[in-house]
Amino acid sequence: MILRNKLKKIIKYIRIELHAMALAFTYPKTPWYVKLLLVLLFLYAASPIDLIPDFIPVLGMIDDIAIISLGLMIASRLIPKHILEECRQKAKDVQGEFSIKGFYSKLFKNKKK
Question: Contact at 8 Å (CB) between 81 and 14?
């Protein structure tokens, strides 16, 4: 049970961070080189070309996770702190809207009107 709760917290943190990075990408004052890094990370994640092919058990996925995690860590350090904090706060504020529970509550709330 404890492991499940930790896993939920980690997943929530990752969702917030990814959303914050997406918001930082669209933020007008984010430096161009951070935007370029985020585009390259997205292209790497979407690309079928890998450093270690995915059909090799375990290692094929670990290289993707390591490169993308490292890239996101570098991007978060290159983004000015005030921009990143603002984007993280926006991401935290809208997390309920992106959950299944939030989706259904909005769906049925709009039906009643």
Answer: no
Q: In terms of DSSP H, where are the helices of 2-47?
A: 2-26, 32-46
Range of the domain at 64: 2-112
Structure tokens, 19:
């959303």
Q: pLDDT tens, 59-105?
A: 777 888 888 889 999 999 999 999 999 999 999 888 766 666 665 66
The phi, psi pair for 99, rounded to 5°, reads -90, 160
| Amino acid found at 22 | A
Total count of domains within the chain: 1
9: Cα within 13 Å, side-chain hemisphere: 6
Q: Does the model's pTM come out above 0.85?
A: no
Give pLDDT, residue 33.
96
